[in-house]
Amino acid sequence: MIRLDKYLAHLKYGTRREVKKIIRSGEVTVNGEVVRNDDYKIDETKDEVIYDGFILDYQEFYYIMMNKPDGYVSSNNDELDPSVLHLVFEPYAFDLQCVGRLDVDTKGLLILTNDGKFNHAVTSPKRHVEKEYVMDLEHPLQEADIQQLYDGVCIDDEISKAIKIKQIADMQYAMVIDEGKYHQVKRMMHAVHNEVLGLKRIRIGDLYLDENLDEGEYRALTKEEVEILGG
Predict the structure, then answer these.
(1) What is the structure's pLDDT at 231?
(2) CATH topology classification for 63-125+210-228
(3) What is the CATH number of domain 130-204?
(4) Taking CA atoms, which of 20, 117, 140, 146 is between 20 and 30 Å from 61?
(5) Could you read off the pLDDT of 113-125 as tens digits, one per residue?
(6) The whole model's pTM is what?
(7) Which residue in the list 95, 103, 105, 136 is annotated as catalytic?
(8) Residue ranges of the chain that CATH labels 3.30.70.580
């Protein structure tokens, strides 16, 4: 059960003060009856709420998959670069948080949600959720480089290892890691005297980037996809 004013405010029909005025003016019906009490309790899973001629659909949590372009930061605010949230044309956009982050010049799979528990489940270091990246490198990786990455390189006084490395083209590789250190992929390549020229994340856990999403586009995750990631 939820208060009617909180319900409307959650759906971004105004501030709590504004939606109280809407309700008291008689513009909202619940199951066909006009309700003027802003503290009226409704069952958001069963009751039919209508405002401005539209049946309202309540959703507590939102889960979005985005194909992040470069030039955008994975945070709410940044003085130098625009936030990925500016690419989400939904009323709840700035309630979302990034599930893990991608560097401003990194593209690919980014998950956004307002579900803190889900966010923690995916990003918790204890779970070792795999992330797969496609890297364009300055030089081809030698066998010794690949072995060193499997054995581990030192980042932040800790050993970081590649789970899997696969060559795609002359200087393009896919690499799987199960950590999320700052600039980790780039720093791992630096450790073997190489440079990342382009980077794209294509997988988190068992969830792959939707190939139908162009850069900057997004879609809601399905219920099954949320469950795949641990929701």
Answers:
(1) 59
(2) Alpha-Beta Plaits (3.30.70)
(3) 3.30.70.1560
(4) 20
(5) 999 999 999 999 8
(6) 0.84
(7) 103
(8) 63-125+210-228
